[in-house]
Amino acid sequence: MKIKLFKRYFKIDNVVYKQLTFRGYSKKNMRPHKISIKRKKNFNLRYQKNKFVLFLNEDGRLDNDLPLDNHISELIKKFIRTEVFKNLSFNNSISIDNPITLEPSTILIVKVKNFVGDEELFDFGKIISSFKDGNAVSIIWSIDKPFISTLRTVQLRSYVFNKLKSRPKGSKDSAETTFFLDEKFKFSKLDLQRNDALADGVFLSRDLVNLPANILNTETFEKELKKFKKIGIKVRVLNEKDIKAIGMNLLFAVGKGSSNPSKVLVLEWKGGKSGTQPTALVGKGVVFDSGGLSLKSSSGMVDMAMDMAGAAVVAGVIKSVAQSNLKVNLVGLIGLVENMPGPSAMRPGDVIKSLKGDLVQVNNTDAEGRLVLGDLLWYAQQKFKPKRIFDLATLTGAIIIALGKEYAGVFSNNDKFCDEFLSVCDQSNEKAWRLPLDKKFGDALSSKITDITNVGGSQGSSIVAAMFLNNFVKKETPWIHLDIAGVAKNTETIFSKNGATAWGVVALFEYFQRFP
After folding, report:
1. Were 284 and a residue from 65, 165, 393, 510 both cysteine, which residue would form a disulfide, CB within 3.0 to 4.6 Å?
2. d(CA 485, CA 83)
3. What is the arrangement of strands in the sheet containing 9-12, beginning at the earlier edge strand?
4. pLDDT, tens digit, for every residue of 77-102?
5. Which residues are catalytic?
6. What is the second-level CATH architecture of the domain 35-187?
């Protein structure tokens, strides 16, 4: 076989082929589709010919103000009198054919209780998302509650990641969604604008997590986040020289085996009062985790491009906050490294001095995330004096054993702070569960030759990892550690169908509105 290479073409046995190259993170990010709000009187024939959703209680009364075509109105009235509707369970739905267009299953009837709970509003969004299936849809909102939870669910579930397909199927998930409201129904345009900004942050976070490590390395991640300058976020980059000069030796050691340079990105949003202490958001950004010299198995390594999900959530939250112009001061600290078994990689048994000054014995190079976070947590406190800290990381596989892929693990040194955050998680429908910080688990990190080791056995290892981080948090600083290893990717949530979830962007965005 004879192969000749040219700039854009190559030839094999005298047959010319065009070279296909991917030029990095160049395709445009998917943007959330806008959702329109109209009054019921405008629900004309144009909308009635497409898919639409009706909410009916057990009485089955149709809204007299709704200008339905006579054929549709009669069909629905007949259906309400059937046993099928009477036997339909609450919060379940059934689709019927449209008598105008003869299109099958284009009218969705959702049977609801006279009183609808807050959590059910999210469930309605999931039902509508499945019914929408990429098509234009209209929702006749006859529930006496705010519709923002339903709208948010429909919008966030419309996300599709197909930018790496050479011939992506035409996605219709951006097709129009319209809510039709009663004339007297009040809603906030600000809430809608903020919801669009939230969706932007969620979609960015998902894009980052879904990208493979040969495309999203530490440098392309940096380039993507430098775009934040356009929306008023101050972006500063600490390179390897800076990292070593500052003394973040733990973080630097993790990336020594990779040809991709380690970086720390500092993102500052100053929307609050001048002089007010910021909240620090610290994100683990391991763009690929091979385990280092403590090498993972091939099956355990295949999804490790998502080991930067904590960093992606920090980026998504700060972008949403800035686009919403929230009156809050935030500083995001993202540690970007790649954990590879190169010739200069840290070795099991190495002793490394942390920024705090503790000597850490690295007994397992695959417990690298805590090393990155340890230095970042100390740097955040020394440099910015934050009034509280969140850190987010896909830190331990053990959290999946404990909580499955349903709940994020929450650890905190401050009950009031933690209770506030958990209440927001509950209201915003991002599941989280608190686990203890216990000195007994911290004892597992004791070392015969140094101040602390980075691993401490298999029992309660998520708590042991949290106790390692706790060593780098001052007692007076309120701190929450979020282990999102189970919920960051490859699990369906109320807001996501599959792939990256961006868990945490919604809850943190809501938190900063309530507790700036």
Report:
1. 393
2. 46
3. 3-5, 9-12, 15-18
4. 999 999 999 999 999 999 999 998 88
5. 296, 370
6. 3-Layer(aba) Sandwich (3.40)
